[in-house]
Write a structure and sequence with these properties.
CATH architecture of the largest domain in chain A: 3-Layer(aba) Sandwich
Number of strands of chain B: 10
Structural class of chain A: alpha/beta
CATH topology of the largest domain in chain A: Glutaredoxin
Largest sheet of chain B: 6 strands, antiparallel
Number of domains of chain B: 4
Helix content of chain B: 55-70%
Order of helices and strands of chain A: HEEHEHEHEHEEH
Distance between the termini of chain B: 54 Å
Number of helices of chain A: 6
Largest sheet of chain A: 5 strands, mixed
Oligomer: heterodimer
Number of helices of chain B: 19
Chain lengths: 178, 656
């Protein structure tokens, strides 16, 4: 009888281990992007449509902004677009576009068709800078404070709730949105 | 409206499964025929309800109903039609529904094909399957409803994970689940036998064909997964000891042990408890695999959908099902008096050794898979146990398995002499020597493991062939049946697998390099010329496609077109190009563009000899399993008691 209980006991030990594992896994999902609270990555990239004009991360520091990673081939970006436009129109914060792995002509046509909410659009044709930002798919958005630190990251489309709960309180704290 | 009907069907199936889990058990305990028959009716009704809800989910994908959240998350308007079907199981909710559908299919099959079983036994088996289904349906309905609505409806979907947009992934999950879930039948037979205290030899004979079929499906599922990882992940490897792969491999190993142990129990009446515990373990490992994959406890390249809260539910389910059945085993397993005795050297001993080696192997994989979790739990840092651990231990355990395998073929039940066995095995030993020496001289890069592997493979294959010839020349009445032929084919497959597995790694050559259009590179006698790239457009992706022309001694062998795809949801995927061959694969993967103009590319070239042997071997194992399941013996009615002491004649007929 005792011998036959061995499988049960072994299994219960395994069950305890798995339960502990679940607790850890629960924790894991709460770990934010490693870039949060850090200075944004360095880059020097051309402005979309003006290949001769270069813009670097340094020039963006000073005024907070939302860096919105988008592309003309990205369907979700189109869904997100009205929200971004609304945000830009509200004047709450400057919205900077990072055009991600796109063709210039496609990107221009897209902006012409759906509207251009961006104060500035940076062209990241190779996606190199996006990698530094930890982007793995468009759309993603990064909220950058006046000192150039990334304070919040949104994976997937920005929604009115995200603006209300994550972006507005932070911008209010900085006191003076443009 | 339709998705709601699908949901109602799920709830209806849950009610039926709960009825199936209770009424037939009551009927079996007091001999009430009416209550026992609820099992069959329930199994059939349950199957049609789940099939109905599965069809509804599929339909939502086909017509692109983006008001269903699951559809919106896992497809989009550009997704080609064939992938709309496979997208149904492309993520968590749908794959659980597929799991449940296959469970109902197996239960349905048991209800149909078990007319010869005693009523009470059949009722108990179906009741156990009913409980398994009820638990799973609760899981689906409360944590993973595939029919949840998205309000307001999405404009377009997010698209299916591009890794899953591949023909291999259309059939891999269903086949794997057929295997995984198929072990629920062996499990239900074992639990029913324990409940009714009917652990007899007939019991094993009833459950054997089910085990064979489940095992054959699992073999196919794993082989397809390996093949998919080989060409789709673009790493050129065929097995990564990834937690998800391990999760399917562990039940396979224990299932293999179970098949062998069932053979002994059926033929000789011994190993009864061992067979019971293996049947319980095989299915437990399938559930554990589901838990590991679905809970996010382990990180893996395959972790497509994971969610810790769901993990709590599966863990509870796991504890109830496995803990409960093991406890039942502790209380109800038959006493020590069982079966015929056997000597130190006999087929029984050899199969016992086979079982011990396989169980150690499964324990090794389990330990390696859970070790990082254990360290994490003890806060001892994060590590990942990689191929060095698994590969080395696996190879070490494979040696005694391969060496002993032909002995198991030739050894007689009960008692045998080493002298006679060695005499029988002279020819295979000679074949092994020839194979090893030939490898040593013809493939100088094969190394010790390669030579040993080929020698072992020849040793196994030669004994299969010789044994088959010997058996075919026996008296007509004693010629091998399908069971025995299946056994021989499967073991021959083991030999072929061994050739591939031991030669591919040491003999392969690979090169990662930067290539500009016009560049060429010579690898293993093949000259790869890079002709440049061009843009191509697929239904839901755009891609850079490279063109490589391959020459061997000046003659053109083939053209390969690897792609770097960018899907409409932004994911980037490498689509490797292959030229398959029996003795070698040529494989080209396109990496990143190395300059802005896109003229220079990171390229990976591979020459992979004998890799096809791995999958051909696995397919033979599968074929053997299916063939053995159709043996005439399993169709014999129960009334015809076959419990007479085996004579030498029907011993020879007995496959191991």
């Amino acid at each position: 009888m005792i011998g036959r209980l061995v499988p049960v006991i072994l299994f219960l030990a395994l069950g305890v281990l798995l339960a502990v594992g679940l607790k850890i896994a629960d924790h894991k999902t709460e770990i934010p992007s490693p870039l949060i609270g850090k200075q944004m990555p360095e880059f020097t990239l051309p402005v979309l449509g003006q290949p001769e004009v270069m813009v670097s991360h340094e020039e963006l520091i000073g005024t907070p902004f939302l860096l919105n990673v988008w592309a003309s081939w990205c369907v979700t970006c189109r869904v997100e677009h009205p929200v971004i436009e609304e945000l830009a129109r509200s004047g709450l914060i400057r919205v900077v576009g990072l055009n991600y792995r796109d063709e210039e002509a496609d990107a221009q046509a897209w902006l012409a068709r759906f509207g251009n909410p961006y104060a500035l659009n940076i062209a990241d044709i190779t996606g190199r800078t996006a990698i530094d930002f930890g982007v793995y798919a468009a759309p993603e958005s990064f909220l950058v404070d006046p000192e150039g630190n990334i304070v919040f990251k949104q994976i997937g489309a920005v929604t009115p709730e995200v603006i209300e709960e994550e972006i507005v309180p932070r911008v209010r704290e900085w006191g003076k949105g443009p | 409206m339709l998705p709601e009907l699908g949901q109602i069907a799920l709830i209806g199936a849950l009610l039926i499964s709960l009825t199936m889990g209770t009424l037939p058990l009551i009927g079996a305990s007091n001999g009430n025929q009416k209550l026992m028959r609820v099992g069959q009716t329930g199994a059939i009704a349950q199957f049609f309800l789940i099939a109905f809800s599965f069809v509804i989910l599929t339909w939502a994908f086909v017509v692109q109903d983006f008001s269903v959240e699951y559809v919106a998350r896992n497809s989009n308007s550009l997704l080609p039609m064939q992938y709309r079907f496979s997208a149904v199981w492309g993520s968590h909710e749908g794959s659980l529904l597929l799991w449940e559908l296959i469970l109902c299919l197996w239960t349905f099959a048991v209800a149909i094909f078990s007319k010869k079983l005693p009523d009470d036994f059949r009722a108990r088996t179906l009741a156990v399957l009913g409980w398994i289904s009820a638990g799973f349906l609760l899981f689906v309905i409360f944590t993973s409803n595939p029919f949840g609505r998205l309000i307001p409806q999405a404009v377009d979907g997010l698209d299916l994970n591009p890794l899953l947009q591949d023909p291999g992934l259309i059939i891999h999950p269903p086949m794997l689940y057929m295997g995984y879930v198929g072990f629920s039948v062996s499990f239900a037979f074992a639990v029913a036998a324990l409940l009714g205290q009917q652990v007899t030899r007939e019991w094993v004979r009833w459950s054997r064909p089910w085990t064979h079929v489940a095992w054959a499906f699992l073999t196919l599922g794993i082989a397809l997964g390996s093949w998919w990882a080989y060409y789709e992940l673009g790493w050129g490897g065929w097995w990564f000891w990834d937690p998800v792969e391990n999760a399917s491999f562990m039940p396979w190993i224990i299932g293999t042990a179970l098949i062998h142990s069932q053979a002994v129990t059926e033929k000789r009446g011994t190993f009864r408890n061992w067979t019971l515990i293996l049947a319980i373990t095989a299915f437990s490992l399938c559930l554990l695999g589901t838990f590991l994959v679905r809970s996010g406890v382990l990180t893996s390249v395959h972790a497509f959908a994971s969610d810790p809260t769901r993990g709590v539910f599966i863990l509870t389910y796991l504890v109830v099902v496995v803990g409960g059945s093991l406890l039942l085993f502790a209380i109800r397993a038959p006493g020590m008096v069982q079966g015929s005795n056997f000597a130190g050297l006999s087929r029984e001993t050899l199969i016992l050794l086979n079982n011990l080696l396989l169980v150690v192997m499964a324990a090794m994989v389990l330990t390696g898979t859970l070790y990082p979790l254990l360290l994490d739990a003890l806060d001892a840092g994060k590590i990942s146990v990689g191929p060095p651990y698994f590969g080395t231990l696996f190879a070490l355990l494979l040696i005694p398995l391969a060496v002993l395998l032909p002995f198991g073929f030739y050894a007689r039940w009960q008692e045998d002499s080493l002298k006679r066995l060695l005499g029988e095995l002279r020819v295979p030993a000679f074949a092994a020597l020839v194979g090893g020496v030939a490898t040593y001289f013809l493939l100088p890069t094969a190394g010790g493991w390669g030579v040993a592997g080929v020698a072992g493979a020849f040793w196994i294959m030669a004994s299969c062939l010789r044994y088959y010839r010997e058996r075919m020349t026996a008296n007509p009445g004693q010629r091998p049946g399908r069971g025995e032929t299946g056994m021989i084919i499967a073991h021959f497959g083991v030999g072929l697998f061994l050739v591939g597995a031991s030669l591919t790694n040491p003999v392969s050559s690979e090169k990662h390099l930067r290539m500009v259009a016009g560049d060429s590179f010579e690898l293993a006698g093949y000259n790869f010329v890079f002709e440049g790239t061009r843009g191509v457009r697929g239904p839901n992706y755009v891609a850079d496609e490279g063109e490589f022309i391959v020459y061997k001694s000046g003659k053109r062998v083939t053209s390969l077109y690897p792609q770097k795809r960018r899907y409409s949801n932004g994911q980037v995927m490498t689509e490797a190009a292959l030229d398959p061959g029996l003795t070698r694969d040529l494989y080209v993967g396109l990496g990143e563009a190395l300059n802005e103009q896109g003229t220079a590319w990171a390229v990976r070239l591979y020459h992979k000899p004998f890799i096809r042997f791995i999958w051909i071997g696995a397919l033979l194992m599968m074929a053997g399993g299916f063939l053995a399941a159709t043996d005439r013996r399993y169709r014999r009615p129960v009334s015809q008691k076959a419990e007479t002491r085996p004579t030498d004649a029907n011993l020879a007929e007995a496959p191991a």
